[in-house]
Amino acid sequence: MVTHAEWARIRRGLRFGQVFEGTVVKVPRPGAIGIFVDIGLQVGGFVDVLLLPEQSDDWPEEGTVAEFEIWWADSRRQIRLKPSDSRYLRTDFADFLACVRPDWPFEVGQPVRDPGPSAFDEVGSALRPDGPQAVPP
Fold it and tell me: Going by fewer Cβ within 10 Å, which terminus of the chain is more open, N or C?
């Protein structure tokens, strides 16, 4: 496991949309959580289920080599990835992007910052059928 200082150093060298060739190393629960990808860095890569096709049969299998883009990196010491190949993206990715990350085109090429661990909680909340939940004061 990398130290906090090593993770901060690695993260400073990352840019949103930066492309890595990676190998899918684990698909622990197809259709449930996502896939783990080795992109050749000291920290692992992960593609969240929210970015993958609805049918897990369409997910890349273990051993698949493909290109992945940096989607997010926060304090978890793991690089969140987005498949570059549209075959491995959810079919409504453009709509998803407009809803969840409308500034993505402007973020591509920008340094990855550390917003803290709550960013994906906000994404999950935004995708709830009943909308984001109010946070009590």
Answer: C
Write out pLDDT tens, residues 41-80: 999 999 999 999 999 999 999 999 999 999 998 878 899 9
Distances (CA, A) of 7 to 13, 31, 112, 122, 136: 10, 29, 12, 23, 33
For residue 132, pLDDT beyond 50: no
pTM for this model (two decimals): 0.80
